[in-house]
Amino acid sequence: MGIAGAGVLGFVNADLVRDMLGLRLEFSDDDAPSRPASDAPAAADDDKPTEETSASRASLGRTVQLKAGAHGHFHSRIHVNGRAVQAMVDTGASIVALTFEDARNAGIHVRDGDYTHRVSTANGVARVALVTLDSVAIEDIVVRDVRAAVAEPGKLTTTLLGMSFLGQLRRTQMSRGVLVLEE
After folding, report:
1. Is the Cβ–Cβ distance between 106 and 80 less than 8 Å?
2. Contacts of 168 (CB under 8 A, 6+ apart)
3. Domain range for 120
4. Which pLDDT does position 122 carry in this prediction?
5. Could you identify which of 34, 39, 54, 121 might form a hypothetical disulfide with 128, taking C-beta atoms 3.0 to 4.6 angstroms apart as the criterion?
6. CATH at residue 42
7. Residue 131 pLDDT > 90, yes or no?
8. 139 in a domain, yes or no?
9. pTM for this structure?
């Protein structure tokens, strides 16, 4: 299960967060759920962007069209807090999930103590830190105050553009290998 971004919520009920974000959170006895967090599965090597994918993006005002890459995935350059990041669109991810490196490059600095939650991913259990991103943009579409998760170093290989961003759009539609995003 993939996830993406989330803001600091203060003290939270694990069941409520799980239900709201579609996550399976696991807390140890020493976890103080004072900050929400999540993680996403690592992308396989075949998920890497291809020239076909990046060359087949078209921005039409506040509509963006992405063509699927050779393996059926949708990749695009996005901007997180104004910084360019390569991401895979993942409608199965509850929230935007940033690799540790992409988060750092976007000016998001998390300490080891910020990874207060554990999530189950395709690669096992991982710790994540939840944050709120000032902005996430893909072409002309900009969404502000986006919930996101930052994965521990080495736990996520590709940033995922999940539903905390996609769910704010007017339309997200896929047909015949083309994904249309409309603000």
Report:
1. yes
2. 143, 146
3. 14-182
4. 67
5. 39
6. 2.40.70.10
7. yes
8. yes
9. 0.68
